[in-house]
Amino acid sequence: MTQPSHVPASTQGQDFPDGSSGRERLLIAASREFSEVGFSAASIATIALKAGVGKSTVFHHFASKDELYLAVINQAAQEFGQQLDAVLSVSQDPLQTLENFQARHLEHIERNAEIARLVLRELLEPGSERAVSLVRDVLSANFSRLSGFIAEAADRGLIRKDVEPASAALLMLSANVLFFQARQVLAHLPGFELADKPADWTGCVADIVFHGIEQS
Amino acid sequence: MTQPSHVPASTQGQDFPDGSSGRERLLIAASREFSEVGFSAASIATIALKAGVGKSTVFHHFASKDELYLAVINQAAQEFGQQLDAVLSVSQDPLQTLENFQARHLEHIERNAEIARLVLRELLEPGSERAVSLVRDVLSANFSRLSGFIAEAADRGLIRKDVEPASAALLMLSANVLFFQARQVLAHLPGFELADKPADWTGCVADIVFHGIEQS
DNA sequence: GTCTATAATTCGATAGAC
DNA sequence: GTCTATCGAATTATAGAC
């Protein structure tokens, strides 16, 4: 009388890609749930229900709730990693590359706004152990790609050697994070005209940072 | 049997400066309460109790809970405004001034960490009307001082004219905000060595931004 | 502090793919 | 037969009420 075990029972009116596996549906459902209610309020039972699988299936694919959470964010980070590789592999002048990076990065966090908010909420939490894994296991890979690019440009003599590549990278990221977090209110800062022009903002930041670190 | 009404009845074990007025004690108590539990969870009754005044006294000094909240943050902003004037009025090379500004600003938000966290929590809230008043009525004054300084340096021919002063100012602020928000986890970013060296971080940012916008 | 409800996690078994 | 995805039931941890 039971459904064949490899077929989803019911997916509670949520839509999922055709032919998606249980694991894929779980990642999607978890992403939605975590984004909507935050980590602690999210329940494994609800996620399993929405994904149309049994609760124990969750633990077959992910060792724990924490790991599921990391997997959700990791997926978004991987997607950005793809774009990042594309941006950094094109051989052009470093300013152009930094501009591209900055624009793609802001687009990415705005497209994944819910997850981005979730991550930021986590980082704000003082002393969060999850935040540490998040940075170390998930975000650091993409961060290294950017700072690695800057370091390489320094090796080629295009960039000052007395500035830590990681610091320059972090400065660029901070600009995007603030823009994303505070976009609605930035328009009320006197003299700031770019609140509704993300592309101009990313261009401006890349420009300042590049000229700030270029070899003169 | 009751205490004379113009003398604080009881201040619930909290300490306040000697001779402080009811209004002053209210600001202090409100600052603590808002910081601890956030805006919506804070209760006027509790704040009044802690300040040792009646609840109606609160509404004598502040028209609403919102206004009390803004007054709390405004006070911290005013204090920073004092320091800011001191930094900007010293006549020295702009790089030195920017470095000083950046260092004082980070010190200020770290000293007022609870309030800063409160403000940031507010800005994160999507579509918060309070966040708009906050930026327009409280934060914009100090922001204008910084961007005004940069604009002036541009007039003196020390700074590129093709960069909006407000954008450069915002970039500097974003660096401090991220550092403050994520300090605990930045140490786990590969290659970033300044997580426990705030002075080096502010110096580095000021340096990059200055060279990024200086007239070459 | 105990009691209880809720949520996280583990266990054992089944069904299908190769 | 082994391997993997699945489920239902049983077990533990946790948080709040009393």
Task: Give a structural overview.
Two copies of one chain form a homodimer. By secondary structure, chain A is mainly alpha-helical. The first copy, chain A, has two domains: 1-62, Homeodomain-like (Arc Repressor Mutant, subunit A, Orthogonal Bundle), CATH 1.10.10; 70-213, Tetracycline Repressor, domain 2. Chain A contains nine helices and no strands. The longest helix of chain A has 27 residues, at 129-155. Chain A starts with 21 loop residues before the first helix and ends with a helix. At the A-B interface, helix 6, helix 7, helix 8 and helix 9 of A face helix 6, helix 7, helix 8 and helix 9 of B. Chain A binds a DNA duplex (18 and 18 nucleotides) through helix 3.
Main attributes of the structure:
homodimer, 216 residues, mainly alpha, Arc Repressor Mutant, subunit A, Tetracycline Repressor, domain 2, 2 domains, 9 helices, 0% strand, elongated, disordered N terminus, DNA-binding
